[in-house]
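S.,

Sequence below, as promised.
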Amino acid sequence: MSAIVFWISIALVLYTYLLYPLLILLLARSRGRTPRSHPQTPPLTVVIAAHNEAQRIEARIRDVLAQDYPAENLRVTVVDDGSTDGTAAAAALADPRVRVLRLEHNQGKAAALNAALTEVGSELVVFTDARQRFAPGALCKLVEPFADPAVGAVSGELSIAVSEGSASGDVGLYWSMEVALREGEARLRWLHGVSGAIHAMRRELVPVLPTGLILDDMYLPLAVVFSGKWVWMTREAIAMDSGSANAAVEFRRKLRTLAGNWQLMARLPRLLNPLGNPVFFAWVSHKLLRLIAPWALIAALIASAVAGGSFYSAMLWLQVAAYAGAAAAILWPRIGTRVPVLKTAGTFVMLNAAALLSLPACVALDPRGLWKRH
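The prediction came back faster than expected:
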């Protein structure tokens, strides 16, 4: 029985992190499609929800307005979610294209976005955050796929600058793999998540977000999927961000995201229904199994310890050595810099540790979904 548990656990982890991405790559090449796309500049509104962002909100707004997009078709709506540092005043530029809304009390990002959307009259709405910057031409590239009426939402690509030797781990490699996986899912019409830093939707498809929602960048595209429309990804629409300052910050960010996946299942139970979820296979393979994978890793470790025999003893010590190397890379980043494979192992362990703790973290989430610094 221990041997069976060991191999089932290893198979689950391998499928989640290796076989499923390879399957998506092959299917996207053989069966994937792209929407009809051509240059266009329809009216759009860029929505920015902000809390205590006085130091960077003005620069963020100016960055959006500097896009090579017709001024008459571009609007920016900023929602100050109960800030205490003068965010609303800093956002009040002397430009008729900018509108600032202020919520008296901090109610969470979902409430802020809902407030903004009541004021959006354009056909397209673009969502972004206060801390990123858009690459030149990002908005133009983001709206081109909407020329295809089947497309209901479009995600851009978040480019994360991680300095060499960063204590945040090998997150740049992980993110590159994640982006490639999303691109393949988009070609198969299986994409169900977008980059919160840069994505757009048809206004008519945007639902009211539930109070306290953590993952608006999954809830919104899932609404598009459930409506029968296509969620596309264009890697030419780029938002730029910097990596986490250190491993602890990156861990908290990932923990909150993974906890949000559990919350999403509670808010959208049809995700667990293969007949009611059009992207059930992709959602289980891409999201749910990543929440289960750390439990499989623990099961494999325990099973190899009790199975007996030279092979399973060797597997036990191999796992112990791998975890020891990963821990060394996390605790002493210079080791990871010198031995890249240990840096990658450290990131893998960190991500799975966050997944392991995500369920209790979900239970402990602030039900109001208030803002957390990353």
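Residues 44-247 form a domain with the Spore Coat Polysaccharide Biosynthesis Protein SpsA; Chain A fold (CATH 3.90.550.10).

Coffee later?
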